[in-house]
């Protein structure tokens, strides 16, 4: 599971947490991936963003007989999901707020695995009518249990300020609107990514290839190509 001796750029998995048809999550994640791809570390080629869409993973409700922390996976979809997460060095979670928490699909995807998450760093981006903060607060707790270190800076996207519904029928509950985040939203996402990289550099990473430096992670301080 966390045995990849991978070389190449530091891989940040951007996990799209909503799966429903017509979801706004696709627009939010697309914007987030664009912003992250403009980060100096990504532009310099020392980090890369991989969008991981839970709708494409199509995981059923957890159907493994053995809890994930034992790493005894019986289902092919679990092994596939394990490989996807294990190949990431850190994460950005993009989650909507559903009934004051995260979507069931996202919680389910976390529950499937254990070691693949361990000792990695994540940043959280929430969105919702009220900005998704209750969802990201819950997600922070959940990720703590699978040993993910969540950075303090997080991004909150309130739907009624960051989406333009001017061309939509006000009576249509499925109107997606057009995402129009302001510059400060981009700044906080970029700052969050910098924190993810900085914290990652401070954590030991025995599964990383030794050619990436003594701790297997890119250096943080003094490594402008990563955290500038
Ligand atoms: C089942 C469900 C529950 C929701 N609950 C909340 C909520 O508790 N708080 C909130 O601010 N928005 C809530 N919303 C609004 C969603 O955050 C908003 O519709 C968002 O676009 C959902 O993300 P998605 O379009 O990617 O699925 C809820 C939406 C759904 C579908």
Topology pattern, helix = H, strand = E: EHHEHHEHEHEEHEEHH
Number of domains: 1
| Total of helices | 9
Structural class by SSE content: alpha/beta
Quaternary structure: single chain
What is the C-level CATH assignment? Alpha Beta
Head-to-tail CA distance between termini: 31 Å
- CATH topology group: Rossmann fold
Q: Spell out the CATH superfamily.
A: Flavodoxin domain
Q: Main beta sheet, described?
A: 6 strands, parallel
As a percent range, the share of strand residues is: 15-25%
Assign the CATH architecture. 3-Layer(aba) Sandwich
Evaluate the radius of gyration: 17 Å
Organism: Micromonospora echinospora
Protein name: NAD(P)H-dependent FMN reductase
Pfam families: FMN_red (PF03358)
Region (Disordered): 208-228
3D architecture notes:
The protein is of the alpha/beta class and 228 residues long. It has nine helices and eight strands. Strands 1, 2, 3, 4, 5 and 6 form a six-stranded parallel sheet that branches. It has a two-stranded antiparallel sheet with strand order 7-8. 38% of the residues are buried. Flavin mononucleotide binds next to loops. Flavin mononucleotide (FMN) binds at residues 18, 20, 23-25, 96-100, 128-130, 159. It comes from Micromonospora echinospora (Micromonospora purpurea). Pfam families: FMN_red (PF03358). Residues 208-228 are annotated as: Disordered. InterPro entries: Flavoprotein-like_sf (IPR029039), FMN_Rdtase-like_dom (IPR005025), NAD(P)H-dep_reductase (IPR050712).
């Amino acid at each position: 599971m966390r045995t990849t001796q991978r070389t190449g750029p530091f891989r940040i998995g951007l996990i799209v947490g909503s799966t429903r048809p017509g979801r706004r999550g696709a627009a939010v994640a697309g914007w987030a991936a664009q912003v992250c791809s403009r980060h100096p570390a990504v532009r310099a080629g020392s980090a890369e963003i991989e969008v991981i869409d839970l709708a494409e993973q199509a995981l059923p409700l957890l159907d493994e007989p053995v809890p994930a922390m034992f790493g005894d996976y019986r289902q092919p979809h679990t092994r596939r999901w394990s490989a996807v997460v294990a190949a990431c060095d850190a994460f950005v979670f993009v989650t909507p707020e559903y009934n004051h928490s995260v979507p069931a699909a996202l919680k389910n995807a976390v529950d499937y695995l254990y070691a693949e998450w361990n000792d990695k760093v994540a940043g959280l981006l929430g969105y919702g009518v009220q900005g998704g903060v209750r969802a990201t607060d819950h997600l922070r707790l959940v990720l703590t249990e699978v040993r993910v270190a969540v950075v303090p800076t997080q991004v909150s996207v309130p739907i009624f300020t960051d989406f333009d519904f001017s061309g939509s029928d006000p009576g249509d509950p499925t109107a997606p609107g057009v995402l129009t985040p302001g510059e400060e939203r981009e700044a906080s996402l970029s700052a969050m990514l910098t924190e993810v990289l900085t914290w990652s550099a401070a954590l030991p990473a025995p599964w990383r290839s030794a050619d990436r430096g003594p701790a297997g992670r890119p250096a943080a301080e003094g490594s402008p190509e990563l955290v500038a």
